[in-house]
Each structure stands twice: as C-alpha cells, then as structure tokens.
Amino acid sequence: MSGDSMSPYLKDGEYVWSEKISYHLHSPRRDDVVFVNSPISSSELVARIIGLPGETVSVRPGEIKINGKVLNEKHINWGSLTPESNTWPSGEITLKPNQYLGIGDNQILTSPGNVNLTKEAIQNWLETSTFSLQEITGKASNITY
Predict the structure, then answer these.
(1) Domain limits at 80?
(2) Whole-angstrom Cα distance, residue 85 to residue 61?
(3) How many domains does the chain have?
C-alpha cells in the first residue's frame, strides 16, 4: 500500500493480498475494499465500494446518501467536516448497470481545507470515482505488516 488514502484501515507501507476469485462467485458488495485499474493512473487504485449499480449516490463534504438515506459508514474519516458545519454544495450520480462508486476512507486528505468547492468539482469527483466490474482487479483480503 502506498499513501494514506485508506488510512486507518490500510496504512502506507503495508502489504495487501488481492483475492481474485470472489467476484466470479458473487457481485461486489458495499464496504468491499477493492483494487481498480484506473484510466487516469498508471497504477492500481484502492477504494472502498459505497455505491452499487442502479443506486443514486449524493455527496457533500461530511455526508453521503444512498437513494436518499444517509450512509453511516464507520470507515470514512471526514475529519471535522459535518454537513451542518459547512455550506459546500452537493453532487449526485445515478450509477449505471455494472457501475460502482468507490472512495478512499481518509477523505480528510482529499478535502481542500476551507476552500469553497463548486458543485461542478464535487460532480467531477463523483464521476471519476466510478468503475465497472471489469476494472476491478481484486478484493483486499489480507494485510501484512
């Protein structure tokens, strides 16, 4: 693992096994940590699946909703951001069949401090956080130090 985007679940320098059989037996599930071939990066990305095919996901810093219901994801670290403490806009995406949405657990790293994000920036972040089943190369299954 390189970087802190999945901290504290996965830490920089840890070795993570990628298990490749599960998704031949069943579809990916919410909360799965997966490796994804990224069209914008030369290396695999690691993400936690939060959105499943057909779901509508809306996000604003500090809050994620799936089909209108708040996702109480214990792994996601927003730092001190809460939906009530900021005026940032939200973005929304309805996932297509065979499309998943995944993000890093450590959102405090990707939050731009006190910068007032635009709706377009959040929308772009949502759209670039999607991937297909074919882009998933494996599921995180074992961590070694």
Answers:
(1) 15-144
(2) 10
(3) 1
Q: pLDDT 10s digit of each residue in the chain, 145 long?
A: 555 555 556 556 666 767 788 888 899 999 898 988 876 666 778 888 999 999 999 887 778 899 999 888 777 666 555 555 556 667 899 999 999 998 876 565 444 444 456 778 778 878 888 999 999 988 887 655 5
83: left (phi over 0), alpha (psi -120 to 50) or beta: alpha
Number of H helices, E strands in the chain: 3, 10
Q: Where are the beta strands (DSSP E) in the chain?
A: 15-19, 33-37, 44-51, 56-60, 63-66, 69-70, 91-94, 99-103, 130-132, 136-144
Task: Flag whether 5 is in a domain.
Answer: no
CATH classification at residue 129: 2.10.109.10
Q: What's the whole-model pTM score?
A: 0.78
Nearest to 144 by CA among 15, 11, 6: 15
Instruction: Output the CA angle 111-112-115, nearest 5 degrees.
Output: 130
